Amino acid sequence: MAAASISPAAQRMARFAAGLLSLAVAANVATAQTGQATDQSVEALIGDSVSSPSDERYNNVREAIQRFANGDQLAAETLLERAVEENPRLPPVGVLMAKLQLISGNAAAVRGALERAVQNDAADDPEPYLLLAEEALSGQRTIEADALFDKAVELIEAYDANAKRKRLFQIRAYRGRAEIAQRRQSWEKAESDLRKWIELEPEEASAHQRLGQVLFMHEQDAKDQEGFKAFARAQQLNNDLPNPYVSAALMYQRRDSTSRAMEAFERAFQQSGTDATTLVSYGQALLQNGDIQKAEQVLKQARSAAPDQVNVWLLSGVAARMAGDAETAEQHLLRALALQPSNREVLNQLALVLAESPDQDDKQRGLQFASMNRQLNQDNADINVSLAWVLYQNGRVREASQLLQQALTNASLTADGKYLVAEILAASNNPTTKKNAKTLLESALKDNRGIFIERKAAEELLATL
């Protein structure tokens, strides 16, 4: 695939990360090596406000960053006051101090610094509200984030101190408000804010990609066509994004429009049959729909096109399991394990394949993989159920039952997890236990959230209850 263009958003994140790294280095290496803050750290602090942050006229900012990194916040604040006096286009001092706390990783101090900034010199500055809104959004506090973004927008409309800052404020506000609208499934509101974002940043691929997703959620053919154009534009801007037909297919899946989804996947496959993302997405969709033969054809191409991608071998192992070929499934899953030894799903599938082998040594190996996976993922209900199943297959029924009771107390299970529990319950002579097994199987067969590997076995078991 062609190299992806770097979006402005990615560039800002890179500058932020570079600033964080440089501040960390400045705080820990010898004074002779850290007499001045790096250009990256200055860029991270004021690059959204001025065009040439490395200029000598911002030396007070550079020195303030160094003093802050050395633990002298009072000196840092004094230097920033001088910098703002000399360069009024810079953010208020209180905002700069809060951003220094943020960049240095002291998240606990950021809110207090922003509140002081609003009280002292930043009452009319939108950035404290944007920073607080973004923090609330990342913390899933949607109501709080919504109110803060609205306040920020109100201040942005009146703000005229720095055109560059104002534009970036608008982008951040529209991006954040669109995310809130998407969470609330307010598609018209999300579309409106995303279009405003794109007006300001037309080369931002993620904005076009999100607009495409929102347009598809209107569930109107005309909007679908607009959404597809947005996906196509997004991929033009960032070739790492999926083929637009794949993006469309995923949205059709979300809408439970299976036939349209598969048509779109097939179009993507015809267009880019050597693209790993297309092959993996299509293969996964085919397995979810139970078309194992076609999935294997697609995944065979994926193994050739992307032999170093763990998902290619994981899905290939799943396909082999569903086809009843345990030996091939084990080979594919071992390839996946070599690529990513701690991958939860790889360990899980490998444990289950080996546990169902007639060979006792294989069963023991399966138990080792299942036990290791539980150590890494103790709170995952499906991983606990898988260990219970592997223990059961190894004849350790009492331990399996104890673990099963723990796993069922705290989380919902995938369809395959429900099937494994039902298999154990169905072996009981207790009518109530068998009834519970039947209920679990009925629930599993209605679950369309992903690939149901044991669907056929679940249907056969249900017919016996």
How would you portray this structure in words?
The protein has helices at residues 8-28, 39-46, 59-69, 73-86, 93-103, 107-120, 127-138, 142-158, 163-183, 187-200, 205-216, 221-237, 244-254, 258-271, 276-288, 292-305, 310-322, 326-339, 344-355, 360-376, 381-393, 397-407, 415-426, 431-446, 455-462. The radius of gyration is 27 Å and the shape is elongated. It is built from 25 helices and no strands. With 465 residues, it is mostly helical.
List the topology elements.
Elements: H1 8-28, H2 39-46, H3 59-69, H4 73-86, H5 93-103, H6 107-120, H7 127-138, H8 142-158, H9 163-183, H10 187-200, H11 205-216, H12 221-237, H13 244-254, H14 258-271, H15 276-288, H16 292-305, H17 310-322, H18 326-339, H19 344-355, H20 360-376, H21 381-393, H22 397-407, H23 415-426, H24 431-446, H25 455-462
- Tell me about the largest β-sheet: none
- Report Rg: 27 Å
Low-confidence stretches: 1-35
End-to-end gap: 51 Å
The overall pLDDT, averaged over residues, is 89
**Structural class by sheet pairing and helices:** mainly alpha
Note the main attributes of this structure.
mainly alpha; 465 residues
Short description:
73% of the residues lie in helices and 0% in strands. It has helices at residues 8-28, 39-46, 59-69, 73-86, 93-103, 107-120, 127-138, 142-158, 163-183, 187-200, 205-216, 221-237, 244-254, 258-271, 276-288, 292-305, 310-322, 326-339, 344-355, 360-376, 381-393, 397-407, 415-426, 431-446, 455-462.
